[in-house]
Amino acid sequence: MKIESYQLGERLDSFNYQEVQDALLAILEKGCNAVLDMTACNYVSSTGLRVLLYAKKMAASKGLNFYLVGFSDEVKDIMDVTGFDSFFESFSTMEECLNTLR
Amino acid sequence: MKLPQLLRVRESLASRISLWVVVSVVVILTATVYVGNYFVVKSIKLEESVKANHILYFVGQRLEAALVTVEVAVRNHLNAIRANLDNPDELYNITQQLLENNPAIVGSAIAFRPYYFPDRGVWFSPYSYREGSAIKSKQLGSAEYDYHKMDWYQTTDSLKREYWSEPYFDEGGGEMLMTTYCYPLKDADGNVIAVVTADILLDYFSEFLNVDSFMHAYAFILSRTGAFISRSEDGLVLEQNFLNDTEVTSQRDLLEMVREMLDGKSGFQKWQSPTLGDSYIFFVPFEHMGWSMGIVCQATELFKDYYKAALLLSLLFVIMLVLLTYILRRFIHRLLTPLTTFTQAADEVAQGNLHATLPDIHSNDEMQRLHHSFSIMQQSLVSQMEELKQVNETKGRIEGELKAAKDIQLSMLPKAYIPAEDDRKLDIYGSQISANDVGGDLYDYLHRGDKLFFCIGDVSGKGVPAALVMAKTLSQFRNAVSNKDDLKVIIDSINKATCNGNETSMFITFFMGVLDLPTGCLHYCNAGHNKPLVVSNSAPGSIASHCEELPAKPNLPLGVSDDVEYVVSEYTLPAGATLFLYTDGLTEAMDAHYELFGQERLIENLRNAESCKMLIDEMTQAVHHFVAEAPQSDDLTMLAIRYNQ
After folding, report:
1. Which homologous superfamily is B48-302 in?
2. Fold of B414-643
3. Which of B68, B359, B534, B637 satisfies CB 3.0 to 4.6 Å to B432 for a cystine?
4. Is some CB atom of chain A closer than 8 A to the CB atom of B458?
5. φ, ψ of residue B99 in degrees (nearest 5)
6. Each residue of B3-41: pLDDT tens digit?
7. What is the mean pLDDT of residues B560-573?
8. What gap in Å lies between CA B541 and CA B611, rounded to an integer?
9. What is the pLDDT of residues A17-65, one digit of tens each?
10. Which of B458, B506, B556 sits opposite A87 (nearest CB)?
């Protein structure tokens, strides 16, 4: 199973959502499972959440998977409040993610 | 041209070009004139030298003719002398005859060698001379006047041929400048027996040396020993030792010239005369006497015509330059006039008159091309302005439409809550400030029976798409709460409707509550929204010390998935408590340094105000104060509900 990851910066919001969305779609277009490495990220806006949701839907439509890795405390709060933590498959580290999936 | 105008030369192209052309012309012409002048002066010198030589030649010819007359006269009397050698006294008559026949001769002697006539002694020299108009005779030789030792006698005797003496002053006579022709009378064996002399006054030369007509020049004669004879107003002047004169020897050029003259050469020489200033000396040999003749003339006289011509030329040159400058300026000005018009046209265009008139260009040159480019620019500007106008109109229309859409959106939100006269249980106030014209935040409430249905939500994304989803969600909420009581049923129906055909993955964080007014029992469902805050009852104005998040079980936002089971929570509001709901536009309001307003500041500023309106107004002010000049990044929506029981 092919996996490709995308490293996210400090934020995922209206400023960079298009860029992140394009990058994730490009990975899925290649037929790879996409992993969003959120280790450095400490803020996800509602626009950002939409990107995650969109990526998951696109992956599902292609029979692929979309994973999130490395929630900071701030991001974890956001994911908790929105209930997204139960909706997405997530790993605490990249290593754990790769080990599990292989 | 006035001075200020001259100083503006740098600003005017016409003036600059004229200046360059005139300067170039001046430089080129000056160089040409300089070279031309060299040849002209050279040719003038040559021409004048030829002229002077001619004059000198004629003077020489006339002098020679006069001298030859004297020589011939002397020779003509030789036979008579020979015939009377045995009759010495008759010889007086012969000298007398010589004078009578030749007015030029002022004295004549027949000086015999010593003891030729033994009875006459050592000296015998019959001599005739003029005294006034009379001619007198006497015997010249004596112990005082020992002619045998004199130059003229000894030279003729030793040379054995005729000879003209060097010029000399006749000390015995009237202090006259003279020269003497000496002829050796020889016997059959060729021995000199006597020297026949004829004196002539050099004054006789005077008129020949008068060359005043030739440029006020004066002539002079240099004898073979270097005696200098010239003519002055007082008559003739003789300088015997001309060659030793310090004035001559100190001037190297002059000395050189004198040598050439003595060598019998001809030529000319520039000379700085103490009396005449810059001068030229032209000289030719006077071969008959072995002398040299010269003419001195002033350079100013020599070049008089040249100076006149040069002055005239200079004047013409200046006039030509002035004319050239004038014509050039006029011509270039005429050429550049279209440029001025272009400049004016450009100014007009800059001021907004795109149809500014361009100059008529008939020449097929750079101006024509400029005209072409300029009119293309004009046309292009006109069409672009037209395009811009259309774009602005379109933009204005869209802005107008968005403004109308915003009004419509605002009108969808609930009006201010007006409680019934006897009902003091509720105070509700909601506020929405959009970041753009239309926004994706929503809130609503409905008082039906003894239940208060309320909600707040935030559609992901911004602008028109979010606004459309907001409107759709709001109407679904109204629709659902108007006839349904069960929160779970209501929220499921809204979620399903949202998921239905949600191609763009829009989702809505949504909080909905149903407050049972008699009991204060609150049923609610939080679909991914910020947790509302509960402010407990305390004195109005004091900081809300008892402020806590409404505990809520997390649910996914609406529109994410249609098979989500939404979990409903339950909470009993204490009397006087205020429920504060907000969207992330509040906690995530950003200042200029990208710092967020945050949950802490929210709680710090959350006061139990007299009314919900005041609470929200204060919060709004706190946010505005925090954000200051930074632009609003997200829609800001707040809803406060106070339950008085």
Report:
1. PAS domain (3.30.450.20)
2. Phosphatase 2c; domain 1 (3.60.40)
3. B637
4. yes
5. -70, -40
6. 555 455 556 777 788 888 889 988 998 898 899 889 988
7. 89
8. 10
9. 889 999 999 999 999 999 999 999 998 887 788 889 889 988 988 999 9
10. B556
